Amino acid sequence: xxxxxxxxxxxxxxxxxxxxxxxxxxxxxxxxxxxxxxxxxxxxxxxxxxxxxxxxxxxxxxxxxxxxxxxxxxxxxxxxxxxxxxxxxxxxxxxxxxxxxxxxxxxxxxxxxxxxxxxxxxxxxxxxxxxxxxxxxxxxxxxxxxxxxxxxxxxxxxxxxxxxxxxxxxxxxxxxxxxxxxxxxxxxxxxxxxxxxxxxxxxxxxxxxxxxxxxxxxxxxxxxxxxxxxxxxxxxxxxxxxxxxxxxxxxxxxxxxxxxxxxxxxxxxxxxxxxxxxxxxxxxxxxxxxxxxxxxxxxxxxxxxxxxxxxxxxxxxxxxxxxxxxxxxxxxxxxxxxxxxxxxxxxxxxxxxxxxxxxxxxxxxxxxxxxxxxxxxxxxxxxxxxxxxxxxxxxxxxxxxxxxxxxxxxxxxxxxxxxxxxxxxxxxxxxxxxxxxxxxxxxxxxxxxxxxxxxxxxxxxxxxxxxxx
Length: 469
Fold this sequence. Notes:
469 residues; mainly alpha; 4 domains; 19 helices; single chain; three-stranded antiparallel β-sheet; 47% helix; globular; two-stranded antiparallel sheet
């Protein structure tokens, strides 16, 4: 039935292979772009319509991922959040014939379909109006109107507020450029309360920048204000002090306030940046309170030399790579104390308890900050013994794999296993040919291991080697 889809995909692949943008006129390029955009929307429409069915047939124990959204994200190369939105949109379309027809025609983008279907599901009478608006309004305008429709149709705003509170979250991750990125969501009142604290500081920073002749985006000032709040939480008011007595002032401004972060009665210090233009070099980092040290992944030689070479590392676990000079500034002498007092090579630690020691946990955080399973981004992990502890009665660093709760359950309950190796790698079911049980072979015995032979039923076989204790 759908063989033509495969044929069209192959034809489209051939067209793309011969496409030379530099040989297309401007008018033709615009026409082609519109055609490809419609193709993209139609392709997204097919994926959206099918998402519900994929969710219905998802089996966590067979797919290797816990939820249907995670499976779709892996198949489509998107985030779990995007895949979850596609699933929810697909389910809503069954009761929204107008939106479904627009999706099938390719009139709506994936984002538009998610917004309109969500609002129309709350108020069916607004369906056509929102579809008409989607053809002319900007995405931000459509988003605001859909939010109004949902709020107006909400039969229990208190329950919605509790749901928003239950779904509150704050994420920290690296973007494609390697920058530390922070995103959060919560109730509107939580955001309003946060803004009443942050906005006065942003305004002070803006006034200081304008007085100094600097101009930066509002988002940059907001980030500076957030860092000032963090400084105050650590007991500092200006974020400019340094343990070695230097000023450490950054090219961005520093706000000192005598209150508790409300921005009132504050004093603005415009810093040492030149009045004209913006510095091309990033400002030096503020020194953090040593009570709140992050796990620093840095080679000792790189720390001594002042830079990394080859495959050496210098990064803050969970945040991203940093220059060695920044690592020194952030952690000061604490790093040197850690290096000096590490005592032994943690890779050789073995103890008789069931759980890893503190030294082993630190080493595992170095080698595997999150779940070991390929494609899993969870960072809350359990430590799995490759060889059952009940058999070995010891915990060795090279026999531990950090696994999230879901993948640890697959490993212990259904006998899934990581493919042989180290680091990030697939977790496969028992019938997968990559499963370790399909790759085990009898070890070749050396003459020393064979020992003395003894007769057994008219034959001889080597004596079993002694069991390891």
